[in-house]
Amino acid sequence: MDLELFGTLGPACHDVKRLKRMIESGMNGIRLNLSHGSLEEKQDWIAALHEAQKETGQRVTLLVDLRERELRIQDMEPLDLETGSCVGFGTDIPADRALCSLITPGMTIQLDDGRVKLRALNLNADGSWDCEVLQGGCLQGRKSCALEGAPIPFSPLCEDDLKNLDNARRFGVTALMVPFVQSARDLETVRRELTHRGLNLRLYAKIENEEGCRNLEKILPLADMIVIARGDLGQDTGLVRLPGIQRDLERRCQRGGKPWMVVTELLASMVQSPVCTRAEANDVFRAVADGASAVMLTNETAAGQWPEEAMDMLCRLAREGLREREALASAVCDGRPLDH
After folding, report:
1. Region 223-231: what's the mean pLDDT?
2. Is it true that domain 79-147 has CATH number 3.40.640.10?
3. DSSP-assigned beta bridge partners for residue 137
4. Residue 225 contacts residue 202 (beta carbons within 8 Å)
5. What global pTM score does this model have?
6. Chain centre to alpha carbon of residue 245
7. Strand partners for 146
8. What is the DSSP letter of 220?
């Protein structure tokens, strides 16, 4: 079978030369996160991708990650937060009032994939919250926000998403990644908008909270690929439970005959190092050996210091995992005893 091996387009890899090398390593798909800019705003990056495809003669899936449902704080200057201090969420940390309205007293607020954690204390008259910093750090604008135990009531599509769908054909988009899918209704909404525009795009449904996990069987028929998005999912469920939840989602996808992708921090150390850790190598290998149809790098290629090396490592590890999977399948088919 053919694996889908994705990088993420970003400041570290948006030139033709670097993209060509990543494609030659085996990258056959690339994600563009529209939370950081529209298709029109990133048209130079997309043009470089199309040129790299032309020069290599290889087709690459352009997968755009929609904006809505992925909760984020607003633009801000870097803010150093000290553990034990107090900070205003919605003031010191800018956030829209719709997001603030989901918070309840005592709720844990995780920012930047859990690197910064707050506890909500008091609601102010202007809708902002006084919060205690449980885990400090340097917080930058447009980082992710996860609210402990809170379902996300917003539409799966926002106005910016609809504008990007209007431009999808012009920029050669071939697939959509839908954040925080919680029900079949979410994907039905997206499918209607695609049909309205005459677009036939594959849908990658990101499972990022417990609500999505609970409703997986209803989501499966409407998705082309299930994405086990371990960043926000790990924030919602807790890191200790995450490995078991990942395994459960994989088994349910397998039973339902639906391909799945594993993503988030597969080679996180390669943001700063030219070599991954042994644990990371095992993570990629096991993901594919256990049945994943796709794996994806995010910050490693979008903002890391070694995007080409990270992509090459992902491709080599994934191919090794696929060989293992095929060898096990062959042994089972032939009735031969397994070595492990």
Report:
1. 97
2. no
3. 81
4. yes
5. 0.82
6. 16
7. 110
8. G
